[in-house]
Amino acid sequence: MRLIARLVAWLSRYLRRIGVCGNAGVIVGLLAGGAIALLDLLKHPLVLSNPEAVRTWVILALLGWLVLIVVFVGFVRWSLASVVVPTLVNAVLVSGITLYLSRALGLFPWAWLLGLVVGMVLGLLLCRLYRYSVKGGAR
User: Fold this and answer.
1) Which of 114, 137, 131, 125 is nearest to 33 (CA)?
2) In terms of CB atoms within 10 Å, which of 108, 109, 111, 127 comes out highest?
3) 119: Cβ contacts below 8 Å, ≥ 6 apart
4) What is the pLDDT of residue 72?
5) How buried is 114 (Cβ within 10 angstroms: 0-12 exposed, 13-18 middle, 19+ buried)?
6) Which tens digit of pLDDT belongs to each residue from 68-113?
7) Bond before 109 cis per omega within 30 degrees
8) Statement: residue 137 has pLDDT above 70
9) Which residues, including other chains, have CB under 8 Å from residue 9's CB and lie 6 or more apart?
């Protein structure tokens, strides 16, 4: 029990440090990667044709986008207009790259971990690009 409490405390501190963008990516990455890993568990080995992969990507992106909308509008109380486009971009990129990498590398059982890493890295990168564009680029 003590180990779980330490893990939750560490995770809480770490998630606070990566900020909103990183957390949004982690949410979508875990959701997409978890769904892929679950599909692999149910249909082992998971084999997706190209049309099935595109269909799966669209479904995962829409699901991730809707979850982010609920989190940011419903819980955080941000306006819908302020989060629609950034969360859509995040969901499309994170779910697509997670699916692509897990399919290309054959890491379907580990897709949840891959999604977590991809989501965090892409979330942080997207935040940095946004800040860079808002400040007008390098001067």
Assistant:
1) 114
2) 111
3) 22, 24, 25, 26, 27, 28, 29, 30, 32, 94, 98
4) 94
5) buried
6) 999 999 998 999 999 999 999 999 999 999 999 999 999 999 999 9
7) no
8) no
9) none
